[in-house]
Please model this.
Amino acid sequence: MKNLKIVFLFFLIFSLFQLESCKRQEKIETSQKAKIDSVSYYVQQMKDRTLSDSICLIQANLGLNHAIKIQSNYKIVKEILTYKTYLFGNLKQLDSAISISKKLVNLSLKENDSIAIVNHYATLAYYYSADLKKDSAYLFYNYANEINLKLGDSSEIGKNLAQIAILLSDLGDFEESDNNAIEALKYLNDKNIPYLTAVYNCIAINSRKQKDYTEAIYWYNKAINISTKNTDKIKCLQNKSNAYRDLGKYDKSIAILDSLSKVPIESNATKARIIDNLAYTRWLNNEQNEDSSGMDNALNIRLMENDIWGLIASYAHLSEFYKKGNTKLSLVYASKMYHLASIQRSPHDQLEALQKLINLDDSPKVKEYYASYIHISDSLNEAEKSAKNKFAKLKYDSKKNRQENLELKVVHSEKELELEKERTTNIIGAVSSGSLVFALLVFGYFKTQKHKQEKRAEIYKTETRIAKKIHDEVANNVVNIMNKVQYAEEPKEVLLDDLEKVYLLTRNISHQNNTIETGEKFEASLKILLTSFTNDTTTIILKNIHEVKLENITKNKQIEIYRVLQELMVNMQKHSEASLVAISFNNTKSQYFINYSDNGVGIKFETLVLENGLKNVETRIKSINGIINFESSLNKGFKVFISFKK
Model:
């Protein structure tokens, strides 16, 4: 009986212990469930679009902290991190979005999850692009594309190629952009309408930036016809109207913008852009129209929205509008445009604004504006050159990594065949070479003699021109000063101003006829010559002079090009009455191209006769085996197109 009591007591204690353990476990499970429920709650709050992005981000952080503490489902942690990148992107905190995207890439690489890796690569590329780090964006879109190619995911390949095409377009590599865009079209179909629209729009933009406006309109139409999103369609229609405006087809441009102005649009920035472009195009179509109300309305909307880029466009249009009728107001708007462009660090807009200020302002500030124009232009050229070099290397490395190392195998018999062909060619060449060389020597002798005669004639004409310039410009001014000293009681300041003018005249003549620096100093020497023709009424713009490496041209060709451009500038100064002269330099692997253009009075092409200076220009270009073409029409300026081999 005693033993039975002991057993019963032991059983009672054990039962109480078990009951207490169950209660403790139930309490732990209840607590754990509460924590899991709290994570789910925070995730739900994080995605609540009725809350602001800042509040959603706070909820995401709380949910992430709870999930890490309770070692929650790893999938939830990744879900929260992924959504945080989206929130940071909305808040324009791009550094944070990029940082989290990198973490997600690393987590996916550890799991070897190809689909997750490619998604996070694409996300990382997107935020790099938004942060204007185009080279990094290009790199990660390529990484994503390599994986998609292995997975055979056509849709994703097309999307990545579309993004790469847009990046290349932004960087100015239009040819490579078109190549990627056309390749993207092979992978995209009707299920990818937004990307198809973006690709068509990209090709259209490339065409417009290369001044092929008709081609641009064709691709804009394709984008408009397939677009299902109203915002995309409106954007493409606006771009199409601008292409028509570039072509001078103002009626068609106005018709598109007028129809858009009657469509309900939520975005005030888009409304302002349509109103501004419509008013500006109407004015271009009829410059006698003095109604600026549309442009003023767009300006007010942009001021209320603090739309800086929109304001730059408004100030540019209003400055043009008032340029003839109200120079002071035009100058005010040009100054405002320059101020905002400087704040936004937009060099292209700064240059446009400075050009307006140079043409409008007659105060001593013009020299300061011109100095700023030259500085920004040079800096922009250097920056673009550096970016192109860096990006070209990045493209090369990316392609190199994708390619397999192929060994070139040439069969011995093929080598023998090539050698035999070479022997036969040498025999045939030896038979005819003697007579050919003799003929070339005779031809070369007569050509050299003719060239020497032409050069002597040119030297005589140049000396005559210099003598006449000294007589007409310098001597007459000196006589005038002598008369003032002898017969008029002019103040000392007036005489000093007159003497300074004479000094500037002699300095210009010296610059235009001094010894030509060749070799590495040629570019700087040529630039000094061309910019010396800038004055109060004429602005000289040089494009791409830094990029073509003029120092690589032979000494003989450098001298001829220097004298040719000098002759064109002298001709412009004498006859054209131009206010703007643009000289662009380009080159390919085998040729150089120089295009001269001014907005002077021009002449009818059928009456264009090459005499004196222009005849010298043609002779010099022919002496270096180059080609020169002249293009002109009355009141539409004068153009010269020069090309010669390296």
